[in-house]
Amino acid sequence: MAAAPRRSRSRSSSPRTPPQPAIALRRVLARGYGAADLRADLLAGAVVGVVALPLSMALAIASGVPPQHGLYTAIVAGALVALLGGSRVQVTGPTAAFVALLAPIAARFGVGGLLLATAMAGAILVALALARLGRLIEFVPYPVTTGFTAGIAVVIATLQVRDFLGLTVPEMPEAYPARVAALARAIPTAHLPDAAVGALTLALLLLWPRLGRRIAAWVPAPLAALALAAVAAVLLGQAVPGFEVETIQSRFSYELGGLTLPGIPRLPPLPVLPWRLPGPDGAPLVLSLDLFRALLPSAVAIAVLGAIESLLSAVVADGMTGGKHDPDEELLAQGIGNLVAPFFGGIAATGAIARTATNARSGARSPFAAVAHSVVVLAAVLLLAPALGYLPMASLAALLLVVAWNMSEAPHAVKTVRTAPRSDVLVLLACFGLTVVFDMVVAVTAGVVLAALLFMRRMAEVSGTALVEPGRFLPEPLPEGAVLYRVAGPLFFGAAHKAAGTLHTVAPEVRAVLFDLRTAPALDATGLVNLESAVERLNKAGVFVVLAGLQPQPFRALVRAGWRNRPGKVLLRRSFERGVEAVRARLGNAAAAGAR
Question: Where are the alpha helices (DSSP H) in 131-220?
Fold first, then answer.
């Protein structure tokens, strides 16, 4: 996963209008789309398709399903989301972020349960988009995304140890500590040929980009490393007695025409009802309310992670192309993609940051580039399915180890821990630990709550009410008997009590209090109650109160609460200067009445 960029403001239609499907494509066509643009998109799509081919299989296997489901995801969701989405060059498909989430679902509910949960997640994403809640994802704090992303990377890397070393693990526990213990106990069963092929693939993945930018651009490292490793495994298997490695075709099989065949089916994505696919016991699922209830938490988790990942990917695309995406339109497309893909054998999909960046760097100009990437993957399935079966499982594990390392952004995360404020470091480490030990949903929920609480504490520290010298803010002093209180920061439930505490007592000679609210942008119910209590105490003491310099939201809240109908007690003024005039007039009239 690429470095999460600074959140940017994206263009959106009015909150009252529903999201518009295919907005990115329609904007491209409206500006004019010619042969040169199509040529650039086809070349970019070919490059991304070659990168996506091994990744899609590896991510499906890591998620606990046969590799063809990852390929079908890239084909169906990749094309559909590109055509319907709000980002011009984003590429959608299976991603590493989903692995830690999908693997337990597949283990518990089978392939059918995973696909059904994905379809439910798609429906949730569509609902979020129609409610125009896409912009809420922008409020997930950066330490939360960094923490759970790094945690997911650790989980992914741990899951690859078994295939990378060729370990024999009878049963992989779901809990992370138990999983690590099971892998440690299985170390003596390491298979040297698998480990050798895995090490060769890992070395090629790391060294290939150093051969030159031009070579790496035309032959991406994943394609070169996996192809060379597969050829080496075949040659060594023929030359060295007993040299045998586990491959896709030795682990996976499919049924066709009543026959069980090894490897990947040489078929395009075909319509299928997700619940007709095998459940945890190998039999088709039985639709019921209990099944939907059991899958709902998983579906919510897929939707939340898919929303976060796709919108982060769209921001990356914006930064590389100078474009702007609409979060609600992108969520709508992601929702439709995840709703439709399971009916063609696809698993959960979202915006893939690395593939999106590759697409942009390769010169993509429109959503047609992502469609071309899907066509390349489809062509590979139809033409190369038998050859893909020779890919070693250890090589796919090595590929995901590199993906996990890139996703973790370890150097950046370490720098953040060293330089960020302590509260942000606490949130990051908490999300990291909770993701590893529990899951992403627990981590994001706890992280957002913790970040919100720490934010409220910060705001409370900088908010307050203080008696100030009028000469600091007024060219002329207030009349005798008037004082000025300046409110700094929003009057929300974290800071209202502290702010109102300053007003418990006023001097006996005070007859008017002027509140300067120019720097108070917000007022919530708790702030309103605390302000009400303070003003009532002042009114009982015969003190007239003027609230001046009111910003729009606090003014509306006070008017709604009936504060305009308190003549002789409280006066509201949007302008601070008019509030000062009101205090002068009040005390001047009182002085004139006393003289008479």
Answer: 142-165, 176-185, 192-207, 213-218
CA nearest to 482, candidates 512, 506, 516, 508:
512
Cα angle at 340 between 334 and 341, to 5 degrees? 85
Distance from C-alpha of 148 to C-alpha of 292, rounded to nearest angstrom: 27
Residue 207: Cβ within 10 Å count: 11
Q: What is the per-residue pLDDT across 526-584, written as a single tens digit (0 to 9) for each?
A: 788 888 888 888 888 888 999 999 999 989 999 888 887 778 889 999 999 999 898 88
Does residue 16 belong to any structural domain of this protein?
no
* CATH number of the domain to which 580 belongs: 3.30.750.24
| CA distances for 308 relative to 47, 146, 319, 333, 469, angstroms | 26, 12, 17, 14, 48
Q: How far apart are CA 182 and CA 176, in angstroms?
A: 10
**Domain residues for 209?**
23-454
Tell me the two tokens of residue 78: 């990749």
Compute the distance between CA of residue 220 and CA of residue 213 in angstroms, rounded to an integer. 10
The tens digit of pLDDT for each residue in 312-325 reads: 888 878 877 777 77
**Per the confidence metrics, is the pTM higher than 0.70?**
yes
